[in-house]
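<amino_acid_chain>
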Amino acid sequence: MTDGTGSWWATDDDDDDEEYGDYDESSVRTRPNPKGNRPRSKQRPEHADAAIARVLGVDRGRYTVLVDEDTPGERQSIAARASELRRQAIVTGDRVAVVGDVTGEEGTLGRIVRIEPRTTLLRRSADDTDEVERVIVANADQMLIVVAAANPEPRTRLVDRYLVAAFDAGIAPMLCVTKTDLADPAPFLENFAGLDLPVFTSREDAIPVAEIKAVLVGHDTVVVGHSGVGKSTLVNAIVPGAKRATGHVNEVTGRGRHTSSSTVSLRVDDEEGRHGWVIDTPGVRSFGLGHVSTDSILKAFTDLAEIAEDCPRGCTHLPDAPDCAIVEAVEEGRLGETGRARLDSLQRLLTTLA
């Protein structure tokens, strides 16, 4: 302290250092979080009381879900994704756990807090060089590939790609050829003669609704196809009231116009009261397989995969592959008239991925 003249003089307070000890930086009090938030924990609530629902469709961050499926209290509700799931894709066909208001009343919103284990995942990439996979549909066990006999012309290579994606995902493929009143589908179907592939044919005035429904009940079936092949028309016939938009093929380019812009699940019922689910997807003009391995491609060609068991280890099955059993079988004519086309399709896909 000072004596008023500016000089310092000692007091008993100089002994405070002995009372309180020496201070260092570790003694400084840490300021609390200004927001008052507690540190984030990795533990999340289990939400044991959450309702299990089926995702029917996705629209701008909102999910239409079916709660209490196949019960008297079945109802549709709208839900948003919980923040902890922001990096996980939630797609049509998913089974999810939903909390909050799931009454389905107007203005209500639930919250998806968990994705239940998936049985299958149908994926695609932007192109064959893109390894980033995009999940299209979850939990489908069948794929109905729709192709037109004409207008637009059937694309064998695109169907091959669908087959590869189906076998890679563990999904059983089927084929439906529409517009058979415009062209004979037999030459096109010969390309798949070696596959155990159920085939349906359809024309404008005769859609085999009952026949197709018979294989859809009890299953979740994803419907895929090139734009303009009549996929939405087929779905509307199978599911009355579906009201999927339909379009026409451009007479100049021969291409179909994209009509369905979203993937949606639709319930299909038969005359005996049984039901299944049809998952309609937007029409595409390409289907990238950048995420698929060469082994998965070979699985799609079941007739060739059986012969490949006699190939030497590490065989690429390409034209320059030495002692390839598939190439030898084709050259010897053991695979019939379609053998060359089947091998060519396989090699084109293998070369693209390589």
Q: What stands out?
A: The first strand starts at residue 51 and ends at 59. Residues 7-11, 247-260 have pLDDT under 50 and may be disordered. The radius of gyration is 31 Å.
